[in-house]
Here is the input.
Amino acid sequence: MKKLINTKKKTCVIGVLVFLLFVTTGTVFFVLQKDNQNHDEHKKGDEQSAEKKKEDNYLSLSASDRETADLYAELYEMSREDVAEQQKKAGDWEKTAKELEKLFFTISENKKYQMEKEGYALEDLQEAERLSVKTGRKAMELAEAKGKVWDHRKWSDIVKDSEILSTEEQLGLTKEQVQKLEDMSLEKENRVQVAVLLLNEMYTFDEVIEELGEGKTVEELKKKN
Here is the structure.
């Protein structure tokens, strides 16, 4: 009888302990869940605050500067808010343009290091930068399309020959403009020089065509004060 009572006591004690264990586990789980929820809400709040700040940066620009930001956003495939943020840091559009160009055509050394650890080949990351200039496509986009070493993709699958821009096109001429200069029997060297003249805003393309049509040479056009 005494043995039976002791057995019942042990059973009760075990039952209480099991109950307490469930209660404790439930409490811990609830606390952890609450902490995770608070963390997620805090993180979401920080992200919304950052986005709001970017939007405010954009809206603080003048109407003409907002138009410029919109153009750069389209050209460099990024949000107008990110362009505005870069302009705020740089202070003027010339410095902003150089930084945006750098971000578009190159991959930062820190990013390269991180991508190497993830399985990308350094040679591919460097080639992505070279092809970015030749195709006008974003370097990071090309690198991600090539993929990691074990993806075994070839560059010929990523970039078609038709995408490779000529030197003139890389300097800003369109294919139609290049063709028009070729039709006027301008050699590649002269076409490149015309592109540089336009890049430096010394002439418009129509003005160049008019001057060449009147018999002037590219060398003569370069001497414009």
